[in-house]
UniProtKB/TrEMBL annotation:
Coiled coil start-end: none
A molecular-function term among this protein's GO annotations: pyridoxal phosphate binding
Gene of this entry: lysA
GO BP term, pick one: lysine biosynthetic process via diaminopimelate
Lineage summary: Bacteria, Pseudomonadati, Bacteroidota, Bacteroidia, Bacteroidales
Reaction equation(s) it catalyzes: meso-2,6-diaminopimelate + H(+) = L-lysine + CO2
Record protein name field: Diaminopimelate decarboxylase
HAMAP family listed in its UniProt record: LysA
EC number: 4.1.1.20
Alphabetical list of InterPro entries matching this protein: Ala_racemase/Decarboxylase_C, DAP_deCOOHase_LysA, De-COase2_C, De-COase2_N, De-COase2_pyr-phos_BS, Orn/DAP/Arg_de-COase, PLP-binding_barrel
Domain spans labelled Orn/DAP/Arg decarboxylase 2 N-terminal: 26-270
Keywords: Amino-acid biosynthesis, Decarboxylase, Lyase, Lysine biosynthesis, Pyridoxal phosphate
Residues annotated as the enzyme's active site: 332 (proton donor)
Modified residues (N6-(pyridoxal phosphate)lysine): 46
Natural source organism: Muribaculum gordoncarteri
Length: 380
């Protein structure tokens, strides 16, 4: 990636830099790969709700997957059509449900019978109907970090396959709830298609099983989860969307009347974002050299929370000589470390470093721990 370093010089660090051209190319690749008439791609707003990012995604014509009233509000303000909004989440509050119903969103992805009861109660009070898809926990191991796997029986998400029939009967008994489909999401940062293939098979079995009982689902939502290349973002700036969508096309048996929904977050926005930080000090320890930067785990928590690694580049130094450093932030926690034994060009105070692939779950997860400012952003 080529960084507009001149323009960075006047900006206060740390900040998120978003390459909007790359985002646009990524969205174009999605549109080409998901060209099937009944495929609908939603963007999972939780990955990044920066208005510049949302604007480009809205203009590309995607729908959205929201997990809070705040995300629904951000999406509506950005001009997404209410019918293109799905509302997911295991703990929707009464206030959020009411707001979503009044906004006339497309569908609630419902995670339990108690939630259905509340939706029915509020919809009846408001005199409206709620479209509902039941989130099924398909018990599939997505082979990803245990904090971001969601489709296993032991996870809190969804309704188990054994309890699905009861939930479906419950829906039919509610006058203000209209069951339109099933929803799945098996985890995030999934880097092989095998878990998605298994998901298709699970869905085929379920759809067939319920079709025999006269239950027809017009909408199937397979969630998100497609992973990206954190090791070498320039090798794969755009994920292999063709392979991903073709997997569903190949293995999922849909009738022409069924709509297939996707909720992609990371694969859309991760590679277009970098966290830009300035080197404060280069400190010689007894055994190590530390590069201390002005960004910390408050700006990008993924390394501290998931042992994630973001490629680190010195975008200032032109030196051919390299050295080995630990790159750490200023927060009073040992986990505030972006990389150990990183080989970088000779690095000095004032240099700018880019932490790559930080467009997803970066800025949006920033906090003010230590009374720090939230990171700024610059999109181009
Ligand atoms: N749909 C549902 C129901 C989800 O829970 C998620 C993500 C998505 C879609 C979007 O998944 P994606 O395409 O981005 O993988 N903070 C973690 C990731 C948490 C993902 C939570 N759910 C991280 O930084 O790795």
């Amino acid at each position: 990636m080529i960084f507009p370093i001149q323009e960075f010089e006047n900006l206060e660090t740390p900040f998120y830099y978003y390459d909007l051209k790359l985002l646009e190319s990524t969205l174009k690749a999605i549109k080409e790969a998901a060209h099937y008439a009944n495929y609908h791609v939603h963007y999972a707003v939780k990955a990044n709700a920066n208005p510049e990012i949302l604007r480009v995604i809205q203009q590309a014509g995607l729908g959205v997957d929201c997990v809070s009233g705040g995300e629904i509000k951000a999406a509506l303000n950005m001009g997404f059509a209410p019918s293109d909004i799905v509302f997911a989440g295991v703990g929707k509050s009464d206030r959020e449900i009411e707001y979503a119903l009044k906004s006339d969103i497309g569908c609630f992805n419902v995670e339990s019978i108690p939630e259905l009861e509340v939706i029915q109660m509020i919809a009846s009070r408001l005199g409206c109907n709620a479209n509902v898809a039941l989130r099924v926990n398909p018990d599939i191991d997505a082979h990803t970090h245990h904090y971001i796997t969601t489709g296993l029986e032991e996870n809190k998400f969804g309704i188990s396959m054994q309890m699905l029939e009861k939930a479906i009967s419950y829906c039919y008994a509610q006058p203000n709830v209209k069951l339109i489909g099933l929803h799945f999401h098996i985890g995030s940062q999934i880097t092989t298609n095998e878990p998605f293939r298994i998901l298709c098979e699970r869905i085929n079995d379920l759809v067939k099983q319920f079709a025999e009982k006269g239950v027809v689902f017009t909408s199937i939502n397979v969630g998100g989860g497609l992973g990206i290349d954190y090791d070498d973002p320039d090798r794969n700036p755009i994920p292999d969307f063709k392979d991903y969508f073709d997997t569903f096309n190949k293995y999922l048996k849909l009738s022409p009347k069924q709509h297939l929904h996707f909720e992609l977050g990371r694969s859309i926005v991760a590679q277009c974002g970098s966290l830009i930080t300035r080197v404060l000090y280069v400190k010689e320890g007894l055994k190590k050299k530390f590069v201390i930067v002005d960004a910390g785990m408050t700006d990008l928590i993924r390394p501290a929370l998931y042992q994630a690694h973001h490629k680190i580049e010195n975008i200032t130094s032109k030196s051919d000589v390299t050295d080995v450093y630990d790159v750490v932030g200023p927060i009073c926690e040992s986990s505030d470390c972006f990389g150990q034994d990183e080989t970088l060009p000779l690095t000095k105070r004032g240099d700018l470093l880019a932490l790559r692939s930080a467009g997803a779950y970066g800025e949006i997860m920033a906090s003010q721990y230590n009374c720090r400012n939230l990171p700024g952003s610059f999109a181009k």
